[in-house]
Amino acid sequence: MATAEAAGRTAVVVAWDGRARGVLAVADVVKPTSREAVAALRRLGLTPVLLTGDNATVAKAVAAEVGIDEVVAGVLPAGKVDVVKRLQDEGKVVAMVGDGVNDAAALAQSDLGLAMGTGTDVAIEAADLTLVRGDLTAAVDAIRLSRRTLRTIKGNLFWAFAYNVAALPLAAAGLLNPMIAGGAMALSSVFVVSNSLRLRGFTGYAARSRP
């Protein structure tokens, strides 16, 4: 059992007639992109935490494989919620990625719940966002795209307000030709639309991996 758990596997003892007869080693295969996804999350300024109901030995082995330093293992669904609340009480914004029934409560409690599209219906219902791909890189893409979208919105608002702040006093003083004002307004709309269309050029990890 110790050998199996040290290798990141869950050990299940098989017994009959009151005696242990064997040990089955069960393991989830870590996706090849998981380590890359964890590294990408770190580059975004996020701190990955592995929160799982599995035993500590298995959890630490998996965490070491994908590059996660902080591990909270052996927790029930209520314990996952407590961990999320603790992080929130420390002033942190928590994003939770999960796919199982045991993750549903923590997904609902977190500031941003991301459910894997390949997961259970309960997890999908509890989350704020459903990731179509059952891959952690999808969570990275979602965060990157949301940040870029927010920057675009702020940029559009800045130029819209800047235009009005500059033009309104001139118009009120009679120094702005209506034809020029109309052209400037049209140009402002074109800028906002063109700036927003730049989001169509966003490239996610799935597109990068295509030949």
From TrEMBL:
SUPFAM superfamilies: HAD-like. The chain crosses the membrane at residues 157-174, 180-199. One of its GO terms (cellular component) is membrane. The lineage of its organism: Bacteria, Bacillati, Actinomycetota, Actinomycetes, Micromonosporales. Pfam families: Hydrolase. The keyword Membrane applies. GO terms for biological process: copper ion homeostasis. Its main location: membrane. Keywords: Membrane, Translocase, Transmembrane, Transmembrane helix. One of its GO terms (molecular function) is P-type divalent copper transporter activity. This is Uncharacterized protein. It comes from Phytohabitans flavus. It is found in: Membrane.
